[in-house]
Fold:
Amino acid sequence: ATPGILHVRGYVAPPGNEKGPAVCHLSIAFDQPDVSSIAGLTVYVPAIYAQATARLHVQHVRIVRAWDGIDIRGNTGGTVIQNVEMSAFNKGIDIDGALDSIYIDTFHAWPFGCTFNQQTALLASTTTYPIHCARVDDLKIANSLFLTGYKVRFYTSGNGPCWVTMSHCTLHTGCGYSQE
Structure:
């Protein structure tokens, strides 16, 4: 079984080339039942699975009704996520283990493509995290909107804590953040 709808693998760049793989101009949509409870939804693999893939670029991507959006656990330092729109019922972007900076710019966590019942499930959830982040040496989040989910979560895992800077972001009153 595949670990993600789109499985991105790292590669060894030639000397002098610091670019990694890119996922651009793409839309991924999942079918979900029209229910008003998180418990009634289908659990899928992540839309983009890129564990241990350094310098990944995800740009101009829309992910709709995912269980998990982007899984970038492991050493994914240098990753750039830009202009991404997402509705995810569990974890939007999952980060743990990055040994370099990760940049998230113009990320919109909003109920894209959701029915009224699915929006109810998403907005009432206490287990949905648009960003779920542990160890990262330098996470920069800018120009982003967090309307869905319980909270943006920063925590310390067995890999260590996260260092985060957020600027020009909007957190809807139903979606706060926690630092644990």
The two ends are 34 Å apart (CA to CA). The longest helix spans residues 116-124. The chain has a mean pLDDT of 92.
